[in-house]
């Protein structure tokens, strides 16, 4: 999430209460997803979401103190217990009145009690959001959630329908368009299962397995220690969905290994920061944001994962090629064989994770069972894990697993409920529809202008926000005008997801680099400079697939194949020019001729990778010919320069 939150160490009796609420949430979700009828009937959707919030949202006040310094204060623990109970009571009242909310239209004419408790819950949800999401998102959500109160007094394009304060706060709670709208539905229907699976995987040794596989596969390569960071981060982060926790859990092993084999500290930190950031974009799981995206677009998760595959691979290909070029230029070698685990033994010991992961992917892709797949995979994982002796959970480790699950659920439910206020504010005022038209009008008939506006806005809102929260906000504000301008809906949503993540590696915020700095023992700003270079692909690829959906596998098969092939070649050439080394030609610095070749490679790589038509007014074929000609010319210049050096 935004940062590694300082959670409170609870006394045993509160751990029992915390664990009981967490397990109650699990029972509730399993009953709903598997249609178990444990309560004798199926819960209507709003009652289910209210009850799920009863079991998860109060956990925020127990797990996360109002300030890290208050974590050990008995006084603040007492106050937080009161807040926890107040949250439970208010939510339970709304769950009890669930059918009346639907049948009597409370979102437009709520009774007095609903308005009072709605105001109480609005305050409690915002405080929970502040504790888990940080001050920036708290301020944004608070201001936007109150927008309906003054909407009629604002100038166009922000002008909307006024609502009284009491009606606004009640609407935020009882409406299916606000706190308990799309984000909360995605949480209750799909996201929660993957959170549980990710926590269970880490507590049963999955993180170590992914690291060992990466070391065994590429540890001996040139720059192998850094390539290990790329692979292990991609594997772990795809499941966890948290950039910061991925940097810490993977970087604690990979960053020291990189430094030990000759990588500078800032470069090692940059590799880990970039690899961990890109992991959330990597299928098959892609963290939790992809499932929220599926809810927004009304399509299956597997369609999103398939579309995201090529851009994610381009990102990691560019990173891997830069690492290889850097290692070649400095003459860095791989790790010694005796330092590395045996691939055969690692796979033999970790067959459990491979099997469970295969089951998860099969259920999601082949059976289209995104909602139940992670629960089945988690059940298999825990059952087999308890049979095998190596990572068998003791009672203490099981309790730790439950508590970690509760903290993860509490953190995300607070953020999703809070961000839901933004949807509600735009919905009740009618701004959601009019804003799209106004932005399209401002941009004129130029989709690239809207994309640039979207990229800047995404970057700004990505500062200090979680990936999921930033995506939801931008999916409401920016996606509609971009789609209205004629861009592909799926490409648009992937675009804002990518640009919402860029702030994790771009100074001045660059949260991933701040997480990597203590592990690399160097300045986060030095790491940030390296991260921008290493993550260069993430800045340009979203424009490419937004303007030409062939990169997300949409279009004629021949065009899709040709665009993908030229994109990979182009990204490889861009990586070579950034790091100053080209395979087969050597260094790209040291003489004017080499500098010219380096510039030609950069331009040629961009021409090969970029789509024709919208971004550049020529065809894909013409761009490919121009790019290939520049790359060939650069290669010949380098060869000529090498011959002149030898002759001299």
TrEMBL record:
It comes from Ferrovibrio terrae. Keywords: Cell inner membrane, Cell membrane, Membrane, Transmembrane, Transmembrane helix, Transport. Part of the tripartite ATP-independent periplasmic (TRAP) transport system. The chain crosses the membrane at residues 12-34, 46-64, 76-96, 108-126, 133-150, 182-201, 291-317, 350-365, 372-388, 408-436, 448-476, 496-519, 531-551, 563-583, 595-616, 622-640. The keyword Cell membrane applies. NCBIfam families: TRAP_fused. It is a multi-pass membrane protein. One of its GO terms (molecular function) is transmembrane transporter activity. InterPro entries: DctM, TRAP_DctM-Dct_fused. Coiled coil: none annotated. It is found in: Cell inner membrane. Residues 120-553 form the TRAP C4-dicarboxylate transport system permease DctM subunit domain. This is TRAP transporter fused permease subunit. The keyword Transmembrane helix applies. One of its GO terms (cellular component) is plasma membrane.
């Amino acid at each position: 999430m935004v940062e590694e939150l300082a959670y409170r160490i609870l006394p045993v009796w509160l751990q029992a209460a915390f664990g009981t609420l967490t397990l109650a949430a699990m029972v509730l979700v399993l009953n709903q997803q598997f249609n178990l009828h444990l309560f004798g009937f199926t819960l209507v959707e709003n009652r289910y979401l209210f009850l799920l919030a009863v079991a998860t949202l109060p956990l925020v006040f127990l797990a996360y103190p109002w300030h890290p310094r208050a974590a050990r204060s008995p006084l603040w623990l007492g106050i937080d217990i009161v807040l926890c109970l107040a949250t439970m009571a208010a939510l339970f009242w709304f769950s009890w009145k669930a059918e009346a909310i639907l049948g009597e239209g409370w979102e437009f004419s709520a009774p007095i009690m609903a308005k009072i408790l709605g105001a109480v819950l609005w305050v409690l949800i915002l405080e929970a959001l502040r504790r888990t999401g940080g001050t920036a998102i708290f301020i944004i959500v608070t201001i936007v959630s109150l927008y309906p109160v003054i909407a009629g007094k604002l100038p166009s394009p922000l002008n909307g329908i006024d609502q009284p304060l009491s009606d606004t706060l009640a609407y935020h709670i009882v409406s299916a368009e606000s706190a308990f709208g799309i984000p909360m539905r995605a949480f209750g229907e799909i996201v929660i299962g993957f959170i549980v699976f990710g926590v269970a995987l880490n507590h049963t040794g999955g993180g170590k397995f992914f690291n060992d596989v990466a070391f065994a596969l590429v540890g001996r390569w040139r720059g192998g220690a850094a390539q290990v960071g790329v692979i292990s981060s991609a594997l772990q982060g795809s499941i966890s969905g948290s950039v910061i926790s991925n940097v810490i859990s993977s970087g604690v092993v990979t960053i020291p290994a990189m430094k030990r084999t000759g990588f500078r500290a800032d470069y090692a930190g940059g590799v880990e920061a970039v690899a961990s950031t890109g992991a959330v974009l990597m299928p098959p799981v892609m963290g939790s944001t992809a499932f929220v995206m599926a809810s927004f677009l009304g399509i299956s998760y597997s369609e999103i994962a398939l579309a995201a595959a090529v851009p994610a691979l381009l990102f990691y290909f560019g990173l891997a090629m830069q690492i290889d070029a850097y290692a070649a230029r400095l003459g860095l070698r791989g790790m010694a064989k005796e330092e590395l685990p045996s691939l055969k033994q690692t796979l033999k010991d970790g067959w459990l994770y491979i099997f469970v992961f295969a089951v998860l992917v099969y259920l999601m892709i082949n059976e289209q069972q995104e909602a139940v797949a992670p629960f089945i995979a988690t059940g298999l994982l825990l059952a087999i894990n308890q049979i095998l002796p190596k990572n068998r959970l003791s009672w203490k480790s099981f309790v730790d697993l439950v508590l970690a699950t509760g903290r993860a659920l509490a953190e995300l439910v607070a953020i999703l409920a809070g961000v839901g206020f933004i949807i509600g504010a735009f919905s009740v005022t009618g701004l959601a529809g009019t804003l799209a038209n106004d932005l399209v009008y401002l941009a004129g008939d130029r989709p690239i202008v809207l994309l640039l506006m979207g990229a800047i806005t995404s970057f700004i809102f990505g500062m200090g926000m979680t990936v999921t929260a930033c995506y939801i906000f931008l999916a409401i504000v920016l996606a509609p005008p971009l789609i209205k301008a004629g861009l592909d809906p799926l490409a648009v949503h992937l675009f804002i997801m990518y640009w919402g993540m860029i702030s994790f590696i771009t100074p001045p915020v660059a949260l991933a680099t701040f997480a990597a700095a203590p592990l690399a023992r160097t300045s986060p700003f030095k790491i940030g400079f390296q991260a921008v270079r290493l993550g260069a692909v993430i800045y340009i690829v979203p424009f490419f697939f937004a303007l030409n959906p062939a990169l997300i596998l949409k279009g004629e098969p021949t065009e899709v194949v040709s665009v993908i092939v030229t994109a990979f070649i182009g990204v490889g050439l861009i990586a070579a020019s950034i790091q100053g080394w080209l395979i087969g030609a050597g260094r790209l610095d040291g003489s004017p001729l080499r500098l010219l070749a380096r510039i030609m490679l950069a331009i040629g790589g961009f021409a090969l990778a970029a789509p024709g038509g919208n971004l550049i007014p020529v065809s894909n074929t013409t761009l490919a010919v121009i790019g290939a000609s520049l790359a060939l010319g650069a290669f010949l210049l380098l060869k000529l320069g090498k011959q002149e050096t030898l002759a001299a």
